[in-house]
Write a structure and sequence with these properties.
Blueprint lengths: L4 E5 L5 E5 L2 E7 L3 E4 L10 H14 L8 E8 L3 E9 L7 E4 H6 L10 H16 L4 H14 L10 E4 L5 E3 L19 H7 L12 H6 L12 H13 L15 H20 L6
Parallel strand pairs: 1-5
Antiparallel strand pairs: 2-3, 3-4, 4-6, 5-6, 7-8, 8-9
Helix pairs in contact: 1-7, 4-8
Length: 280
């Protein structure tokens, strides 16, 4: 991790988007996308959440997910930020379209797919219309989101790829930024807020993570240890906290926040994977 890349970028060349974590800036560098952290009143740490989630995914050996790596962004020669970089997955012969867009344009039957019935109906509709099985895609999405407590999973950030013959192809699972207590919730209370408040809920099939996990019981076995994730967390402690800001970034993480994020990961990983609440 000591070979973390640094990019000198200009805000005038950025793609600016409104997101749940605030205003996001992205830069397309050909084969790669670089993303700055969200900005509301101050910079958030959603880029860090993306990277931590990627390491959890590696530890579980789950394939088909967009991988995010840490980077440093020198923005306009005035601000130094913790950002993340990922490979571009777009292909010139395939068009990406979100599941929500398919629903709103009438290609799919419903605008919302709620509960286990909605979950199964979505699988069946995608298979019928695009000859594409998204069962594993949804299983992996539900499992990952349940571990990291992703409060922003919706049909707008779930996609498929379509070729000129209207044949469907899987897109990678992406967008893990609004999770792990790094972008919302009162410090020290994020886990309780996500699990018990109506204001912060699981998505997109149910308001409860555990209910969504019940849809994928008995399907597949997930195993792993948090080896890479724990190494990454220690690296963050040593280099990107307020107390240990080795790269002198503008948005260092408070040690208490990172400590709480680590507790969320251990608690959810033990509950979901070690406790196997998703499997009878």
């Amino acid at each position: 991790m000591d070979n973390i890349r640094t990019f000198n970028l200009n805000s005038r060349n950025a793609v600016v988007q409104r997101a749940s974590t605030g205003w996001l800036m992205k830069w397309n560098l050909g084969k790669y996308w670089i993303k700055a952290p969200g900005y509301i009143v101050t910079y958030t740490w959603d880029s860090v959440a993306e990277v931590i989630a990627s390491n959890i995914i590696k530890d579980l050996n789950i394939k088909g997910c967009l991988q995010y790596e840490l980077c440093i962004i020198n923005l306009d020669n005035s601000v130094k930020l913790i950002g993340c970089i990922s490979k571009s997955y777009k292909q010139h012969n395939l068009q990406e379209i979100t599941i929500q867009k398919l629903a709103e344009t009438g290609i799919l039957c419903k605008r919302q797919y709620l509960g286990c019935t909605g979950y199964l109906q979505l699988i069946n509709e995608i298979k019928e219309r695009f000859n594409l099985n998204i069962t594993k895609y949804l299983e992996d999405t539900i499992l990952i989101d349940s571990i990291i407590l992703n409060t922003d999973r919706n049909l707008w950030n779930m996609s498929i790829m379509i070729d000129k013959n209207f044949q469907g192809h899987l897109a990678p699972i992406y967008d893990f930024g609004n999770s792990l207590g790094l972008t919302g919730g009162r410090e020290g209370n994020f886990y309780e807020e996500v699990m018990y408040s109506t204001g912060m809920q699981a998505r997109p099939f149910s308001s409860e993570f555990e209910e969504q996990l019940s849809y994928i019981r008995n399907n597949r076995e997930y195993n792993g240890e948090l080896t890479r994730t724990r190494v990454l967390l220690q690296y963050l402690y040593n280099n990107f906290t307020v107390e240990n800001n080795a790269y002198n970034v503008t948005n260092p993480i408070s040690t208490e926040t990172l400590k709480y994020t680590s507790q969320i990961i251990e608690k959810r990983f033990n509950t979901v994977i070690k406790g196997k609440i998703w499997k009878n």
